[in-house]
Give the backbone structure.
Amino acid sequence: MSAEAADPGAPLRRRSRPRIDLRRLGRVALRGPVSRDRLPDAIGHVAEAHRAHHPDADLTILHRAYVLAESSHRGQMRKSGEPYITHPLAVTLILAELGAETTTLTASLLHDTVEDTEVTLDQVREQFGDEVCYLVDGVTKLEKVDYGAAAEPETFRKMLVATGNDVRVMSIKLADRLHNMRTLGVMRPEKQARIAKVTRDVLIPLAERLGVQALKTELEDLVFAILHPEEYEHTRALIAAAAGPDAPLDTIADNVRHTLRDAGISVEVLIRPRHFVSVHRVRRKRGELRGTDFGRLLVLVTEDADCYAVLGELHTCFTPVISEFKDFIAAPKFNLYQSLHTAVVGPEGAVAEVLIRTHRMHKVAEAGVVALGNPYAQDGTAPVQHAEPSDERADPTRPGWLSRLLDWQESATDPDTFWTTLRDDLAQDREITVFRTDGGTLGLPAGASCVDAAYAQYGDRAHTSIGARVNGRLATLSTVLSDGDTVQLLLAQDTASGPSPDWLDHVRTPAARIAITGWLTDHPDEAKPTGSMMTSVDAGAPGPADPAPERDTQVTAPARTRSGPRATGVVVEGAGGPVRLAGCCTPVPPDELTGFVVRGGAVTVHRRECPAVAAMQEIGRAPVGARWADAEGRESEAGCRVTLVAESFGRPRLLADLTEAIATAEAAIVSATVEPPSEQRVRHTYTLQLPDAAGLPALMRAMREVAGVYDVSRAQHPAPAG
């Protein structure tokens, strides 16, 4: 069952034994009893395939499982007219071809007995042990009589939960669906389409994520034939027309063999025909197909280092297509897949794609988790003593996406929500890894944002998220993460705060979406857009208990007016008129100063780095010298006025906390402006009257320490009038 076989029913070829046609096995009928001293011919096929991968396997348990399955299914027929036992036999042979171990094959032979016969789970446990019983129970469907329309989604939920404890449950289900899809032609067209759509939306993505490419690609072709029959037939015709003894890939394959042989590298070079869906995708991408588009070269070596040696020789002796190079050995895919991908230009400009991998990598690429054998065995031989099936077992093959799926499914109590969310989750076919600052990692779907990372790391605590640092830089929660990013989530100290409805626009993971939706449903009166909960302020700097209107608020208090050349504590050279501090930069000691004469002879004093200084000079205004007066020469009761800008992530009660920090620093608020939130960020501008300029650094530190505030700076733009 090649992962890229042009015939969707073609089995996996192995040199050590003759080919077994899995489709013909579906038409095998059992004739009469079989003596106890030998296996029947049908189970003999399974034994032969199993021994090819596990030469020392004990076949006694397979014999006993077959006897129970055959006797319990005796008299039952499939819709195709074949004895029902041919189905579990075919499913078991599929798994045996992939290299499944004996326990999986035993459960596969029995997988329909509890569902369709009088055999009970207790009987299976008594005769075959807890492990086989767990696998059989995991793939047993729930009754429609009990669950009605929810039977299918709840069956998949049950199966996924069981897979979380033992991935072999899903291996059996995938093989079961493959054989059913092969024999789907006897069903009504509408039922074929319904089963094909579920296979496309759920089973194929699961096969991809578990790395079982041999099953995934054939399922894709079978679904393609049912749902898109015209395009399927057109693709079949293209493949048939391209077949022949003088295919372009044959010439390139010979050249590659000679090149690598001359380099002293022991390899096996094969031509891997693309399966139907793969050819169809290439045709849609490129339009007209080239002769080399119907397959790829597969180079198999012994050691990992040989993969890179082969790559070096190919790139030296052929012209490489650099854009096609991918290293999935150094960075394996999340479904265990490892290979080097490249493309080289052969004779007459033909471009051939090349896959380079070891024999072990090839086995895993074909069979995924099935190739790992029994993940619960100690030292690879003795099985682990399992707890009751209800107890969760440690699974070294349990990938991150499965853990996330199991987490969110607990919150999706409604079957329709679970079914819809499951399909959406499985449609996300790429995964990224981001690093936490504590050294841990988070596996997320491609396109995930900081919101997703927050819920993946903190669960419901992420409701209080206010922002993040991505690769050391401050970022909003809506920031989309890339593979390899380092993310630090920032949480508010106020545990009563909750998420914003805006977050739903940026989430990709079901766990985050379900958690946010649940909180918003439970707190309808508190769900407001980020940054919209603002607190009214006046010159007295209110406490945190002040009311919060639902719109942005700007309030202004009257400022003390001062006049005279020294009323501000500033000495201006040759100034006879009033002197005032510029509102755009609100200078305070020890800022360096520059003044400009304005209408009426008054002098406006700016900080020297204020943008207005350059603007005034560009239009020809001449600056005048200005400096701070000595402390004893200033009016101490006047203090100083300054405008500060606070940049923050929006959250409820933020303005109240900021104004409380300002009041604690004994500063009076002259005016305050809160701009409308943008991308979950809020800008606050305060014009403040301080008793002494020396207290400004401490005030700015206090404001920065308010949860959600990530920067406080002096104003560099015109402040509100006041």
Notes: The first helix runs from residue 22 to 25.
